[in-house]
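Dear Dr. K.,

Following up on our conversation at the group meeting, I've run the structure prediction for Putative glycosyl hydrolase from Thermoanaerobacter thermohydrosulfuricus WC1. I'm pasting the input sequence below exactly as I used it, so you can double-check it against your construct before we proceed with anything downstream. Let me know if the numbering doesn't match what you have in your notebook.
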Amino acid sequence: MRDFLKGKRCMVWSFMGNARMYEALRDYGDRFDTVGIFTFEVDETGTITETGTSISSMLPYIQKWPHIKWLLTIMNHGIANIFTALRNNENGAKDKFLTEIIRIMNKYPWCAGVDIDLERGGGYENKDAANALFRDIYNTVKSYDATKLVNICLPGMTGVQGSVGGENWCVYADLNDYCDTAAIMSYGMAWAGSAPGPVSPRDWLEGIYDYAVSVMSPDKIFMGLPAYGWNWRIHDTPENLGITYRGVSNTYYAAKYWMTGVYNFTGDAPPQPFIPIVAYWDDYNKVPWALPHVYDYMEGWDAVSWEYPLLKGVYNRRRYLTSYGKEQKAEFGTIYIDRNGVPDEYEGNVIITDEMTSLGDAQASAEYRFEIREAGYYDIAVQLCFPYWDKNAIIVSLDGISKTFSENRLWWPYWRRVCWLTLAKGVFLQEGTHAISISGGVPGVQFYGFRVCSGFSEYPFAGEASFMLSPRRFKDVNGVMVEPDRGFKLTFEMLRRKPDSALIWYEDFRDRNILPENYWTVLDGEWDVWQDPDSTENRPYSQLEGYGKLAWKYDGFSDIHIRARLAFPQNSSGRAGVFLGDIFCCLNYDTQRVELYQGNSLLGSYSTSFSKTVDADLRANPNMYTIEMRKRGNKVRVYSGAASTLRFTVNVTGGSGYVGYCSDNRTVCELLRLGDAWVYEPYERFDVELPDGNITSFGRLARTGVTWDDEFQVFSVNNDVEESITRSEDISMDYDFFHSQLLALSCGNDYEVKIILKDINIWISRLFLGDADGFSILYYQDVDSLVYWANEAAYRWKLRGIAIWSLGQEDMRLWEALPKQI
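The predicted structure tokens came back this morning:
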């Protein structure tokens, strides 16, 4: 006989205790398969107390709906030390807990079993003890009464150690045998303290359930879905608003009140108008969202203009602008003389092209003559290129007065790039002929010419974008056209990042000129670069592959920071990583460790786990792992993982020479990044030019124990410490919100605002112009959203059904759309 409810079972919890919860229990109990009675709290001694929904209030529904599996939900309210005490049986806590489970089932014999909701279990190292705890719970219940059920509430995992909330103790495959059903709590990706977004975004849900059904019995699994949403206040900082987090939880009906103009941000009373608004439908995530009291809204791509090096990017459908590197911005005023690098005369070994000259040895020289028509004060700028770290000096003379241009900073951003530098500032030149000559220095520096001008200046530039604000009046609940009472605020949604070492070289192997011999050298083995043959991109995805040692063609490195992202093919083994001289920092597949060697001596290690990639996935979906080291003097720090986690620190002797990538056997590498050991580049500051012309700076963190380079906006640590020690404020990898002061704008007019990036790697995501009394981003769940995912659970992943957190928060129309369970 066909089971028409297969995949369509519905579990809920009695957490809310509000009138709507009891209404749903009364009127729609026939839609519920399982109810977790959210009443029982365990403490760190293992004792269970009744603190949630009163059992007496539930008895009428328990009697009315005998088909429902009424489970006693036992929770620790996410208190980590309770989970730890139970897991480790501290002072007999687990033993007590198991007896308490029997006690409450004896007390309420009508229960169908227990629902175990334990959270904050810690890292992967706790998995064995956690597995034993759930095994013992399951066996205890079944020994008491084999007909009693055990449901376990599990965190959302996209793989082993794949928790976004640090719940890596949970390994689905290990727990499959210790439950009758499992409700995966796949809600909470967005929360009160996160950036606004869907509570359960599609990508997260797909990752969780693709993984879950591969290691657990699908017919045991309930897909956890939220009935609630969040309203994030984005018109000011949480501390100024007197709140801890900007998000406030909303039931469906609270969201509806925002949509229909019942609520506002001035205590649901004047002076803020009561404005009904429309919601947007996020068709990718299948969820509605809205912008209460926002008068204008735009994404990064909506800029009316932007200037290179700003570039367009897309991530998770968010259209942003960002800059990956700074360009030199040079201004000259009036240009009187503009010469390229072809000289009037030269001596010795000189290389001349159509636009530049390079001296081939120390005895070579070249001269350029120019005419000044009117005596006066002038600026003179020369255009140079230092092609490599060992081609770093040239002497330039003006009428016999020489100046040496040289560069020894490995992180200097203009290496291998043509740049303008000052030869003379405000120099007095008589009418007549003058001469500029180049000589000496280091062979190989390229001279592209010079300019005589009225005023030369130069600075590194990360780009800027202009946006047009167009506030217009809204119609309130009474049909009156309204606008903000006090004025507007402008909020910028930006993505910043933690500082990284000041960049020396970024190599992703995507250039068409593969491993040019003037930059790279093979010290050992065989190396090549694979590039995606089907890509139409100018710089297609590529992988370095081979074995041995590949190095930059320069042996003068000492203190550096080097990072590689690599994968082990299915037939590979041994070690792969980065090296400096005789220091080798690697991932060792055979030992499953991060290791550091000097010569043949193992200096340090850290146990971890990583896997090979089958050949079919090597190009499109490789298992990439990050390994890096930072050497300062005689100390080496070793890091691994996507978050660049410090694993250990060791002392070395010496350590200098070539730097590059090394592998015992064939591996692939998609990134090799070389940075300065002491100097950091921040990814945090941007300036805003507001409509009144005032410029405000945002995002820069206060630091101690550092020295700033104001020209390039980088800083060096004064002592051998981790960068994080220099600041008290952290930078989230989530979107941040920055807020203008009160803006006196008039509805009906248009205003320009300009965002000027001072650092790179910042994303200009969205701008919100809203009522200064309050505006927000609201995400919520409605019947269409929940029904969509219920169908996915049933037909795509063939799960048991859905588990909705929690009863009393939902759109009540949902129950009419779900099948009866009896």
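Two things stood out to me. The chain has eleven helices and 55 strands. The chain has a mean pLDDT of 97.

Best regards,
J.T.
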